[in-house]
Every structure is written in C-alpha cells, then in structure tokens.
Design a protein that fits this description.
about 270 residues; alpha/beta; 6-stranded antiparallel β-sheet; about 30% strand
C-alpha cells in the first residue's frame, strides 16, 4: 500500500506520479502535467492512498496492450481513496472536502480526475489505506458472482482460491444471499474463512477438489487462481447448465466445456471497460 500526502487545493499545474514509459519498463516517480479542472459531472481527487493489484503489473508488462494502447507515459493504478478538491458544475452527490474511495484509471498520482459515479463516500470507520484496498477486489467478486454467474440462494458454489482477497469477498457475498460454499484454501485460513461464511474448506495442497466434492455438483465455479489444470478439472464438478466464471482467459479444451456457460477474463475486461 502506498500513501501520498497532498494538499487539499491544487496550486500548481505539475504533480508527482508513478509512471512507466514503455511496456516492461520500470515504474518511476516523475513530475508530469496534472489533470485539467473537472467539467460536467467530473471530480478532482487529491489522493491519499492507492492499492496495487495484479492488473497493474499485467498492464506494465504489456499483457493488455489491446486495451491499454500505445500512448506513453502511462500511470498504473485502479483503486484510490482521497479528498475531493474540485467538482464539476453538474456534480450532484459530492462537494469539495468530501472523503471518498473508488476506482479510476491512473490512480498512482497526487491528483486523479474521474466521474462522480466512480466513487463513494469513505466510511468513517475505514482509514485511507483500508478504503483504497476495497474497490477492485470487491467489484471483481461482486460482478463475477452476480452479474456474470447470477448466483442465487440455495445454489452450490466452488471458489478456487478462497483464501485470496477476491475469494474472501466472494465468500462473504455468497453467504449473504444464502449459497452453499466450498472453497480451496490453506487449512491455516479455515477458521477465518468459516467466520466469513464458508461451509466447506478443501485443502488445496493435500486434497483433490474433484474427489472431495464427489457427487456434489456445483451450480457455479468461480476460478480466481487461473491455472489451466484447475479450470479444466472444474468441468468435472460443475452441473450441466451451470456456470464457470474465471478471471483469466479461457484456454480449455475439456470435452464438457460445451455443457456449461464459460465466462472468462472477468476482472481484466470489467476493470478496463470501467
């Protein structure tokens, strides 16, 4: 987690930002031109904290060139928390001085311009770092479970990677709607994950999830780990007509793949289209 102290008002056109100037290059702190003042429903945020997610290093490596383009320098980052320093004339939900958290592009900077629908007011019981750690992983879990897989009460779900940040959010969200939850994770996390609502933990180091599930077929498999070998074997446990949702590309040739709905690249495509 990176925290940057900034003034509430902006009194100079330049700002510090973490940038890279070529795919695969180093990320360095530089002074660059700051954002323009907000128009319409835009807000300008003085950034207090940001977070680092896998999508950030994937962009830097050039794994997402088709979406991120060829214009440099580029500023990584999706998550942020901070204080609104300026608002556009059509902004209705916020005013200068509001503490917010949310998502935008290029958040590893002192100041970030985005539309007001991309942020929410920061809960008083979260500090800057905690708030900045929430948006991307929580949104990935929510969109995967409900917009893509359309998980419902009483359904069975297997989460591959339940001990990950996205997995922990997914467990809590699935519990809230009354799903039956299995997840692969380390036994050291069992007590924590069950406190979040997990019904059954599968030790990914010593247990085969296909054998453990046996005749318990899943309505939804949510693959966060992204290993092809696991994703292929997930077809052995998902019901015919069920859903396999993954945050990585679909490269499976499993014979049962045509029997389920396969949604891939959820995190990458959702995040980059936001």
């Amino acid at each position: 987690m990176t925290t940057i102290d900034v003034p509430l008002s902006i009194d100079r056109p330049l700002m510090r930002a973490a940038v890279f100037t070529e795919y695969g290059g180093k990320v360095q702190i530089q002074e660059i031109n700051g954002p323009e003042l907000p128009k319409n429903n835009e807000i300008l945020i003085a950034v207090e904290a940001v977070s680092i997610n896998p999508v950030d290093w994937k962009v830097r490596e050039g794994a997402m060139k088709l979406l991120s383009g060829s214009k440099f320098p580029k500023i990584p980052g999706r998550d942020l928390s901070g204080i609104i320093s300026h608002v556009g004339p059509n902004v209705a939900r916020f005013q200068v001085g509001d503490e917010v958290f949310g998502m935008s592009k290029g958040t590893w900077a002192e100041n970030v311009l985005c539309t007001e629908n991309m942020v929410a007011k920061k809960p008083a019981n979260l500090n800057w770092n905690e708030a900045a750690s929430v948006p991307l992983i929580a949104l990935t879990a929510h969109q995967s479970l409900f917009e893509v897989a359309q998980l419902k009460a009483g359904q069975n779900i297997l989460i591959l990677g339940g001990g990950s940040a996205v997995g922990m959010y997914a467990i809590q969200m699935a519990k809230l709607i009354g799903a039956n939850i299995w997840a692969t994770a380390s036994p050291q996390k069992e007590e924590l994950l069950k406190s979040y609502g997990l019904n059954h933990l599968i030790d990914y180091k010593h247990q085969d999830f296909v054998q453990v599930l046996g005749e318990n077929k899943m309505d939804v498999v949510f693959d966060i780990v992204g290993r092809k070998v696991d994703r292929d074997r997930a077809f052995d446990v998902v019901k015919s007509g069920g859903v396999l949702a993954s945050v990585t590309p679909n490269d499976t040739d499993h014979p049962n793949a045509s029997m389920v709905s396969v949604f891939v690249d959820i995190a990458w495509k959702k995040v980059c289209s936001t």
